Amino acid sequence: MTRAPIHLAFGLLSLALAGTALTLGLRLKAAERANAVIADAAAFAAETARVKAAGEAAGQSATLAPPTLDTPEAALAFALALAHNDSGGGDYDRALKALETLSQSPRDDIRLIARYDLGNLHLRQARLIGDEQVAKGRTLVELGKQAYRRVLDEDPQHWEARYNLERALWLEPEADDGNVEVTPPPAVERPNGDKPELP
User: Fold this and answer.
1) Which residues lie below 8 Å from residue 134, measured CB to CB, with a gap of 6+?
2) How far is Cα 63 from Cα 8, in angstroms, rounded to an integer?
3) Residue 94: its pLDDT value, please?
4) In the Cβ-directed half-sphere of 116, how many Cα atoms lie within 13 Å?
5) DSSP symbols for 81-93
6) What 3-state DSSP class applies to 4?
7) How many CB atoms lie within 10 A of CB 176?
8) Nearest-angstrom CA–CA distance, 125 and 136
9) Which one, of 177, 194, 199, 196, lies nearest residue 185 by Cα?
10) Exposed (0-12), middle (13-18) or buried (19+): which is 2, by Cβ within 10 Å?
11) Which of 2, 38, 70, 118 is the most exposed place for a label (fewest CB within 10 A)?
């Protein structure tokens, strides 16, 4: 019995495993870059707010350029970190611009996540506005509903978008006929009297 077929099989198996290791290594590097972007986004948003405040105090307009984002995943991570930044409710304008750009992505996964989080961003901003600017708050809720509907058009089984759309409909109900009065379900009262949470 010759050993050539055994050596050939072993060589092919080694090449396949090396290819797998290389692929996983590249994915790890991309994940590390995305994690670095996430870690830096909060600091970037805080520094942007500081530079903007300093510029306004001096009577000038100043902004920082965003970091270089070489993958769609990194751009999405950066946009989500801006939207969720804890200092001052996030950077709505930059997050909005980034998520709107990503919502046109040719990649289905990036596009759906961006559209879903665009809806969440609008609803969070409507919540921050509160009762002070009712018309602007309603407009933001409508934009959130549109974003969720776009997600559901592509993926009818996206349960998070379906749930958040229902929550948005509670806030701003719609009627098919102008003569029909729609009343939202009663708000869930919390022990401390807070309003129900939005996404």
Assistant:
1) none
2) 60
3) 83
4) 21
5) HHHT-SGGG--HH
6) helix
7) 7
8) 10
9) 196
10) exposed
11) 2
Written as one letter, the residue type at 7 is H
What's the pTM? 0.63
- C-alpha pair distances (Å), 111 with each of 98, 103, 114, 141, 164: 12, 4, 5, 20, 17
Tens-digit pLDDT profile for residues 43-70: 676 676 677 667 667 776 656 666 666 6
Q: Which sign does the torsion angle of CA 191, 195, 196, 199 carry?
A: negative
Q: Whole-angstrom distance between the N-terminal and C-terminal Cα of the chain?
A: 67
Spatial distance between the Cα atoms of 49 and 179, rounded to a whole number of angstroms: 47
What residues have CB less than 8 Å from 174, skipping those under 6 apart?
Answer: 182
What ranges in 91-190 are assigned the alpha helix state H? 92-102, 108-129, 134-154, 159-171
Structure tokens at 9: 């099989």
pLDDT at 122: 92
